[in-house]
């Protein structure tokens, strides 16, 4: 390929990006116009604001991409000039183009995953800087120990830990002690080994940053199970127990409910601290991010309890494994999320069991899990909400509307179990009768026909999105009835059908009738 055609390519890419920027600008204007309309519901205002924020973020990313392309264009134009006797650059045009393409790919991924953080510095620099700050502001606390209280490890156990030769061995050694503390706490959390599995999401792929925390402490509902990774180390094989669990966070949107994210080292270093800081800043970044998360860094001698607030380190408390009171110190540090409590109470109330690999999906206010009813062994879907009073009220409204809609049109509407709603101190739960599969298993026309059936039965769904249809026994079944109406203007149905037609066209490139 000649460098002129390389230049043409770059110019073409610039034009394409300019077009994309114009499209995003038009979308921003459209969202602004929606926001100015009267009578918007609070939910709609929140939705449009978030949409506008995302679009502006996307526009900034595209501008960056445009600037990079312009730099490339200048570089190519420079190359075309006579070399006045100097040797030409050793980079071929193909090299340049492939570099450019991979840069573009990276940027596109960054745009697509704009709710992921990209760390700016190497973990060692980050760790060292943060440590200086912590020392200056006295936010690094050394736990003195309380002789009359239990420690995590006895002196003999600590000696055994000191004999570990690899990080894998340190992790395997410490797992049962942590699990024991969690059992004592009785909050259904477990410890999962995630040493060999990536679950921290970053903005660049592949990332130069550690994305595999060694341990995840979590409720099983938020975890997808993994099989134990292969190992040739005979000592490690002996340290492993049959009931050790391996797993990763089931979905990035569940990161608000992580118990602890843990990193193990043979000996704690600046770089190790930097890794932990990076985990915290990723977890606390973007949409669905919690403002705060808790992490643990440990080695053969001690453990650090790190509180990360909005991605920056708040405080660090450091303790020896053998210090009296270390057990309580760690136990008290594990957060008590409303979601864990509500799932636990819902399972007790409805006689349910919930294990790993059960997360089905989430929306603006609910999280849905596959559960097993112990009395009859049936699989059901449990939707859980909480945090705010208005979420609890919304779920109760959904329960009554879903029941009514199901009575009117059982073939198209997800069923709800009798007395299948319960509210608790910090949240509420709704028990649905079936677990559906993703809508992609359905034919697009069947989804359209199913909406028409709802309409013929005098139901206006109120939130038409493909994510609100699941596949049950090969047929469409609608969920999420919080905005459903039974008394409405007939034109609203036509509008819903039109909306669904548009979504089907976008998703399947199919004209539904
Ligand atoms: N019975 C079910 N079977 C299988 N998956 C389900 C079921 N109910 C819900 N889901 C999954 O959970 C996701 C969230 O559920 P739902 O739409 O009810 O939540 P929401 O918070 O009300 O969403 P919205 O943002 O529309 O208000 C769905 O998109 C779907 O993937």
UniProtKB/TrEMBL annotation:
<keyword id="KW-0547">Nucleotide-binding</keyword>
<keyword id="KW-0067">ATP-binding</keyword>
<feature type="compositionally biased region" description="Basic and acidic residues">
    <location>
        <begin position="51"/>
        <end position="84"/>
    </location>
</feature>
<protein>
    <submittedName>
        <fullName>Protein kinase domain containing protein</fullName>
    </submittedName>
</protein>
<dbReference type="GO" id="GO:0016301">
    <property type="term" value="F:kinase activity"/>
</dbReference>
<keyword id="KW-0418">Kinase</keyword>
<feature type="binding site">
    <location>
        <position position="383"/>
    </location>
    <ligand>
        <name>ATP</name>
    </ligand>
</feature>
<keyword id="KW-0808">Transferase</keyword>
<feature type="region of interest" description="Disordered">
    <location>
        <begin position="51"/>
        <end position="93"/>
    </location>
</feature>
<dbReference type="GO" id="GO:0005524">
    <property type="term" value="F:ATP binding"/>
</dbReference>
<dbReference type="InterPro" id="IPR017441">
    <property type="entry name" value="Protein_kinase_ATP_BS"/>
</dbReference>
């Amino acid at each position: 390929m000649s460098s002129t055609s390389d230049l043409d390519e770059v110019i073409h890419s610039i034009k394409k990006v300019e077009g994309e920027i114009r499209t995003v600008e038009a979308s921003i204007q459209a969202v602004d116009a929606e926001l100015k309309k009267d009578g918007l519901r609070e939910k709609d205002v929140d939705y449009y604001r978030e949409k506008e924020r995302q679009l502006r973020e996307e526009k900034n990313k595209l501008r960056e991409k445009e600037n990079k392309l312009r730099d490339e264009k200048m570089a190519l134009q420079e190359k075309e000039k006579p070399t006045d006797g100097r040797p030409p650059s050793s980079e071929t045009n193909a090299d340049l183009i492939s570099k450019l393409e991979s840069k573009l790919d990276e940027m596109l991924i960054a745009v697509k995953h704009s709710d992921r953080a990209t760390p700016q510095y190497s973990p060692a620099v980050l760790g060292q800087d943060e440590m200086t700050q912590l020392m200056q502001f006295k936010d690094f606390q050394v736990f003195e120990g309380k002789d009359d209280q239990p420690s995590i490890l006895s002196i003999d156990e600590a000696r055994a830990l000191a004999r570990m030769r690899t990080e894998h061995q340190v992790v395997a050694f410490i797992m049962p002690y942590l699990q024991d503390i969690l059992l004592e706490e009785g909050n259904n959390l477990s410890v999962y080994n995630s040493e060999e599995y990536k679950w921290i999401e970053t903005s660049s792929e592949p990332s130069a940053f550690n994305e595999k925390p060694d341990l995840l402490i979590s409720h099983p509902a938020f975890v997808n199970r993994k099989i134990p990774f292969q190992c040739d180390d005979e000592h490690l094989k002996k340290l492993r127990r049959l009931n050790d669990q391996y797993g990763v966070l089931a979905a990035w949107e569940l990161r608000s409910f992580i118990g602890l994210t843990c990193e193990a080292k043979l000996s704690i270093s600046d770089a190790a601290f930097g890794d932990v800081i990076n985990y915290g800043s990723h977890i606390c970044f973007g949409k669905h991010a919690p403002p705060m998360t808790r992490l643990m860094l440990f080695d053969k001698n001690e453990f650090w309890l790190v509180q990360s607030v909005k991605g920056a380190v708040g405080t660090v408390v450091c303790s020896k494994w053998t210090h009296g009171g270390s057990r309580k110190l760690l136990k008290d540090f594990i957060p008590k999320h409303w979601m864990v409590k509500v799932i636990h109470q819902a399972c007790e109330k409805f006689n349910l069991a919930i294990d790993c690999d059960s997360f089905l999906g989430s929306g603006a206010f609910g999280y849905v899990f596959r559960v097993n009813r112990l009395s009859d062994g049936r699989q059901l879907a449990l939707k859980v909400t909480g945090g705010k009073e208005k979420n609890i009220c919304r779920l109760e409204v959904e329960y009554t509307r879903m029941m009514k809609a199901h009575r009117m049109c059982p073939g198209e509407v997800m069923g709800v179990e009798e007395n299948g709603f319960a509210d608790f101190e910090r949240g509420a739960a709704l028990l649905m009768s079936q677990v559906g599969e993703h809508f992609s298993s359905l034919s697009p026309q069947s989804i359209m026909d199913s909406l028409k059936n709802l309409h013929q039965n005098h139901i206006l769904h109120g939130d038409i999105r493909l994510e609100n249809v699941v596949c049950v026994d090969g047929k469409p079944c609608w969920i999420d009835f919080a905005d459903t109406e039974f008394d409405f203007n007939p034109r609203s149905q036509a509008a819903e059908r039109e909306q669904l037609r548009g979504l089907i066209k976008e998703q399947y490139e199919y004209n539904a009738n």
